[in-house]
């Protein structure tokens, strides 16, 4: 996402291919790079964009020492929950939402009532909670926290905008709690290893995807 036309603020930077480089070359400069989290599809182009524009990077302080592809992220600004970021088109507020990744932040626009969710909520499908840093308890708490925000739209890191934000939040919570019940039922039935539980829960999914 790009906020403003001159001296823009950029939220997340995909791998910096020729098309991304062309688009940023047409823009009127970059003032700051914000990150929702440090997975490669969100930070892959950060170093290249910073070198091209000189824009500083801001990320949650848990990722102060993060290294991507052998290069330190070296953020100029470390964010805490509630910190406000001013940009050419308004303001954003950092909302620390761990679970998918421990330093994950959403960004809330309190004036437009928009929430940029990174990988907390997607436009299509659900979110992986990957080891070793993913935490399902933290993820559920982060989803529940979104209920307290005044929202009219969610803008996810992948997929289309979500125009019924609270319905999507409840859908995500119901999905996770439903999976939890299925796991408990599997354990009660004597199915006790992860591969066997996966085969039971995802019987309708091709077996070639069970490893994932």
Describe this structure in words.
With 212 residues, the protein is of the alpha/beta class. It is built from six helices and twelve strands. The longest helix has 24 residues. The protein is globular. It starts with a strand and ends in an 11-residue tail after the last helix.
Q: What labels would you give this structure?
A:
five-stranded mixed sheet; globular; 6 helices; single chain; 212 residues
Give the strand content.
15-25%
What is the end-to-end distance? 29 Å
Count of DSSP H/I helices: 6
**Sheet of most strands:** 5 strands, mixed
Topology:
Blueprint: E1 2-3, E2 6-11, H1 18-26, E3 28-34, H2 40-43, H3 46-53, E4 57-60, E5 67-68, E6 71-72, E7 77-79, E8 84-87, E9 90-96, E10 105-109, E11 114-118, H4 136-146, E12 153-156, H5 165-188, H6 194-201
Parallel strand pairs: 2-3, 3-4, 4-7, 11-12
Antiparallel strand pairs: 1-2, 5-6, 8-9, 9-10, 10-11
Summary?
The protein is of the alpha/beta class and 212 residues long. It is built from 6 helices and 12 strands. The protein has helices spanning 18-26, 40-43, 46-53, 136-146, 165-188, 194-201; strands spanning 2-3, 6-11, 28-34, 57-60, 67-68, 71-72, 77-79, 84-87, 90-96, 105-109, 114-118, 153-156.
């Amino acid at each position: 996402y790009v906020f403003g036309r001159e001296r823009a603020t950029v939220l997340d930077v995909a791998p910096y291919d020729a098309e991304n480089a062309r688009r940023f070359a047409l823009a009127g400069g970059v003032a700051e790079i914000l990150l929702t989290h440090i997975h490669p599809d969100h930070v892959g182009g950060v170093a290249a964009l910073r070198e091209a524009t000189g824009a500083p990077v801001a990320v949650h302080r848990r990722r102060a020492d993060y290294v991507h592809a052998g290069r330190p992220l070296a953020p100029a600004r470390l964010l805490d929950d509630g910190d406000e970021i001013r940009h050419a088109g308004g303001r954003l507020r950092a909302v620390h939402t761990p679970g998918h990744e421990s330093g994950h932040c959403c960004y809330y626009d309190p004036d437009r009532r928009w929430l940029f969710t990174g990988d907390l909520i997607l436009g299509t499908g659900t979110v992986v909670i990957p080891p070793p840093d993913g935490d399902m308890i933290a993820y559920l708490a982060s989803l529940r926290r979104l209920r307290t925000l005044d929202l009219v739209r969610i803008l996810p890191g992948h997929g289309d905008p979500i125009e019924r934000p609270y319905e999507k939040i409840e859908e995500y919570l119901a999905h996770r709690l439903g999976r939890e019940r299925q796991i408990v039922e599997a354990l009660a039935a004597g199915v006790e290893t992860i591969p066997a539980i996966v085969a039971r829960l995802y019987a309708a999914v091709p077996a070639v995807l069970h490893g994932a």
